[in-house]
Amino acid sequence: xxxxxxxxxxxxxxxxxxxxxxxxxxxxxxxxxxxxxxxxxxxxxxxxxxxxxxxxxxxxxxxxxxxxxxxxxxxxxxxxxxxxxxxxxxxxxxxxxxxxxxxxxxxxxxxxxxxxxxxxxxxxxxxxxxxxxxxxxxxxxxxxxxxxxxxxxxxxxxxxxxxxxxxxxxxxxxxxxxxxxxxxxxxxxxxxxxxxxxxxxxxxxx
Length: 206
Description:
Layout: H1 2-9, H2 27-45, H3 56-66, H4 70-98, H5 106-127, H6 133-146, H7 152-159, H8 167-199
Helix pairs in contact: 1-8, 2-4, 3-4, 4-5, 5-8, 6-7
């Protein structure tokens, strides 16, 4: 699977027609580029972030006010997250409009939908980490909306065992955002590229 991911990103031969600039040019590739930017900037942000109710917001203020390039780094991480979701939505829309979700590519459509939902959840888990008023109330709203879903109360109890912004809740959101969900995102991405190469339906390269 890793080999197919590398071959998908760095093909030996590319057809000339595949290099034409179109309105849907490389939406999936651009989304994966945003994912790499998020991984690299997030790793750098970990050097300063403190996952505790008392230290989270203070560490963000220190990063933006006292660390050279800290404000740019955090802004790049935030903009890349927005760009990732927009590109994934456009990529999914393109697949729908072109009918590429039908057989024999139905499996990859399911994998892509899972990837979209997991990326949305990844963005949601990162929203609480700055621990400012916007983060608190946005997360609180999401947790209340979760109650309306089947098994929503159980999911809320798992994500927020104490209260929104509490020590355990912040720690769980932090662990999900930096370890658990990114692992799922990269695993699904590799599976997505693996299925694309195995199906050989739309591949203009070798």
